[in-house]
Amino acid sequence: MSEGVEVFSAGRRRVGVGRPGKELFGAGGVTKRELAGHYRRVAPFMLAHVRGRPLALHRFPDGIDPGASGTPGFFQKNLPEYAPEWLRGVRVDRMHGGPITMLVCDDTATLLWLADQAVITPHPWTTRAAALRRPDRMIFDLDPPGHDFAAARRAAYDVRDVLAEVGLACYIMTTGSRGLHVVVPLRPEADIDAVRDLARGIAGAAARRHPGRLTTEVRKDKRGGRLFLDTMRNSYAQHSVAPYAVRALPGAPVATPLWWEELDAVRSAGAWSVRSLPGRLAELAAGGDPWHALGRHARSPRRAGERLARLTGAASPQ
C-alpha cells in the first residue's frame, strides 16, 4: 500500500484506510484510524443489526467541522462506481427518481471500508435486501424537547407498556445524539405501510394515555413542549442510526444498546463515545450483549395490529 495508508485485517481481507491520522472530530479528536478501530471492535455486536440491509452513508471527508474550504457532511445513498468489487449492493426503487444501487454491509471488512470513506454514521433500513417492503424492525425515535433526557426515558417506558399489551417485545438504545430509540423485532410478514400504520397506532395510544407529556403532532409549533413520538423511520426508504454507530457530533458519541434495567442510570444519549466504549464492550463480553436475543423475539405485526384494535377500538392495519 502507498504511504499514508494503514492496513487493517478483517478475516481474509486487508482494507487500507487512507490518511489514518486525520482528525475527523476537531483538534485532538477521534481520527480515521480510531474510527476504523471502533468499527472493527464493535463488528461482533453490530453486524447482526446491519447485515443484509441497504445503508445510507453519512460521510464527512473533511471532518464534522470542515471550515470554509472543506467539504461539509452529506448523505450518500448510491454505491459509488469506484467501490471495490467485493462489496455487495442491492437495487432499490426510490420514492422519487429512478432506482439506485445501495451498499449492503455484511462483514467487518465493509465496515472498515466505510471508515476509509469517512462514513461516520451508517444508517440501515428497517427492511432487508431480500424483502424491501417487509420490515423486520419497527422504530420509535424519542428525542426530548430541549435537553430533557429524563423525558425520553419516561417516554420509552410509556411506549414499552403499549407494546407489551399488543404482544410485542422491544429493545432500547441511546442514539448518541439527543434521545432514545425503542426498537421492536418483527416477523417480516406485513407490508411496510401496514407496519408504519401500526407504529402510528401504538404511538397514538401512548400519547392518549399521557397527553400532558407525549404527542404525535408532527408540527413543532403544536407540540406545546411535549415529547414527539416519532414513527417516521417506519416508512419506505427511511433509515435510522445503526446500533454502535458513531454520531457526527463533538466527542464522537456512539449509539449504544442497553439493558432496560440500566436505563434509569443513563444520564444522556451520548453516555458513551468512541474512546469510552471499549470499557463497556469489555463488560458486555463478560455479562452478555443486551440485544443478543433480539431476532428470536420477533412477533407478528398482524396479530399486534389486531390486539391494538381491540385495545383502542380502531381498525386493525392490514
Task: Note the main attributes of this structure.
single chain, 318 residues, alpha+beta, six-stranded mixed beta sheet, five-stranded antiparallel beta sheet, 6 helices, globular
Characterise this structure.
The radius of gyration is 20 Å and the shape is globular. It is α+β, with helices and mostly antiparallel strands. Strand 1 and strand 2 form a beta hairpin. 27% of the residues lie in helices and 20% in strands. Residues 31-291 form the DNA ligase D polymerase domain. GO terms for molecular function: DNA ligase (ATP) activity. It is an enzyme of class 6 (ligase). InterPro entries: LigD_pol_dom (IPR014145), NHEJ_LigD (IPR052171).
Fraction in beta strands: 15-25%
Structural class: alpha+beta
What string gives the helices and strands in order? EEHEEEEHEEHEEHEEEHH
Look at the structure and give the mean pLDDT. 95
Count of DSSP-assigned helices: 6
User: Helical amount among residues, as a percent range?
Assistant: 25-40%
Radius of gyration: 20 Å
What is the tally of beta strands? 13
Q: Categorize the overall geometry.
A: globular
The main β sheet shows up as:
6 strands, mixed
Read across the widest sheet, the strand sequence of neighbours is: 11-12-8-10-9-13
End-to-end C-alpha gap: 55 Å
Low-confidence stretches: none
Compose a concise summary of this entry:
The chain has helices at 32-50, 108-116, 149-165, 192-209, 277-287, 301-312, and strands at residues 5-10, 13-18, 54-59, 74-76, 88-92, 100-104, 119-124, 137-143, 171-174, 180-185, 214-215, 227-230, 256-258. 27% of the residues lie in helices and 20% in strands.
